[in-house]
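Lab notebook page, bench 4
Experiment: in silico fold of construct C2
Operator: M.H.
Input chain length: 134 residues
Purpose: comparison with the prior construct
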Amino acid sequence: MEILETEKFTLQTVDGTHLKFSIFTDGEITKDDIPPILEFMDQYHAPVPVLLVREGSYTLSILVLIALRQEAKTRIKAMAFVDRNQKDTILTKIAKQTYMKDARVKSFDNEQDALDWLAQFGNLPTNQSPSNTD
């Protein structure tokens, strides 16, 4: 699976190097949004580098925060947040200190700097079952 598109976000593989998670909703990311994300990430056998681009003014439900806290260590190698403003930067700091504290997290004001930083963490791991064409 190369791309997951919903009415709230897009999660996609980029050139075999990282996942790009673009959140464009102004609503809440809820527990119902978690299963497709986990299914998408299940195609990798190791933690992955992730670029998170904020396009909306979303919130995360408490169940999403708990899931991120539980899953980050085994699924996310590093996460680069592209922050649009001071509010985003504060939210990234909160993520780094709480629900994302087991992953490498860094805040950037532009996508290129974020990608340059993510590059040090290597490419995406190979898929668990390369012969699977689902």
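Observations: Residues 130-134 have pLDDT under 50 and may be disordered. The beta strands are 3-5, 9-14, 18-23, 28-29, 48-54, 59-60, 76-82, 104-108.
Next step: discuss at group meeting.
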